[in-house]
Every structure is written in structure tokens, then in C-alpha cells.
Write a structure and sequence with these properties.
Blueprint (H helix, E strand, L loop, with lengths): L17 H9 L5 H10 L26 H10 L5 E4 L6 H8 L3 E4 L4 H11 L4 H10 L2 H7 L1
Parallel strand pairs: 1-2
């Protein structure tokens, strides 16, 4: 199965695609006045964009970000290997996007459910653990997951 994104968050389907054009726009380096201008050019609706990928579908947490919102600010205002702070991280969308874009992140939330969801979404599982888990599933359990 081919994923829509690689680790650099680049769309694989090029040409006339608003999502591809958006990614090309935010993947460049700008000075601060240019960033302010870029922010006014972005259509913040993100209609027809892929918003449910990777761990973003783990839980239907209320009032969650679509990933493009924190992604825009992460790409335009931070450097790779920098630190992103999200003091009200909710279900961890900003933390996931930070990881996917080679940033370290710190998240906090008062809601214990939000903190748990964020931890689950951002905890890496070793390949050997994942393979063991997959092999232990029955066919019926696998069908339920899909």
C-alpha cells in the first residue's frame, strides 16, 4: 500500500494539486516578513486535503486540530531538530507533526485522557514488538482492525 506522505511530508501526487502546492509553499525557508505574507496566502479551510493519516485517526478527540494547522506553523517558524512546545496538546496532533518533520516536542495537557492519547500517538513501537503483536492476532481480530 502506497502512503500519501513520506517522512518529509511531501505529496507523492504532483501537478495542479492544492495539497501539493501547499506543501511546496511551506517547505521553503523564509524571513519573518515573508512568513507573515505566506500565512495570508494559505487557504485555512484545507478542503479536500488528507487529514486522517498515521496516528491522527486513533481517537476522535473533540476540537482536535487537522494536522495542516500545526504543520504550517512548525514548518514556517521552527528549524529541524528544534523544539516545539505545545502547552495544551490535546490529543497530540502538534506532537505527531513535530516528530514527522524532525523536530523535538514537549506537550502537556490537564486532561488525563488527552495526555494518554498523546502518549499513545507519539510512542514508537520497536519492529520486533510490533511483529510479535501482529503474529499473535487471530484472523477475526485482524478484520476488526481494518
Amino acid at each position: 500500500m502506497k502512503m500519501l506522505y513520506d517522512t518529509k511530508q511531501t505529496a507523492l501526487f504532483e501537478g495542479g494539486n492544492p495539497e501539493y502546492e501547499y506543501k511546496a509553499l511551506i517547505n521553503k525557508r523564509y524571513n519573518f516578513p515573508e512568513v507573515v505574507e505566506i500565512l495570508s496566502e494559505i487557504d485555512w479551510d484545507f478542503k479536500d486535503f488528507s487529514t486522517q493519516y498515521l496516528t491522527h485517526t486513533f481517537h476522535s478527540y473533540p476540537a482536535r486540530f487537522i494536522p495542516q494547522i500545526p504543520l504550517t506553523f512548525i514548518k514556517l517558524f521552527t528549524e529541524e531538530r528544534g523544539i516545539v512546545l505545545d502547552p495544551f496538546c490535546g490529543c497530540g496532533t502538534t506532537l505527531v507533526e513535530s516528530f514527522l518533520n524532525n523536530r523535538n516536542s514537549i506537550g502537556n495537557d490537564f486532561n488525563p485522557l488527552a495526555a494518554l492519547i498523546s502518549k499513545v500517538k507519539t510512542t514508537l513501537i520497536e519492529d520486533t514488538q510490533f511483529r510479535y503483536w501482529i503474529l499473535s492476532l487471530t484472523e477475526e481480530e485482524i478484520k476488526e482492525c481494518v
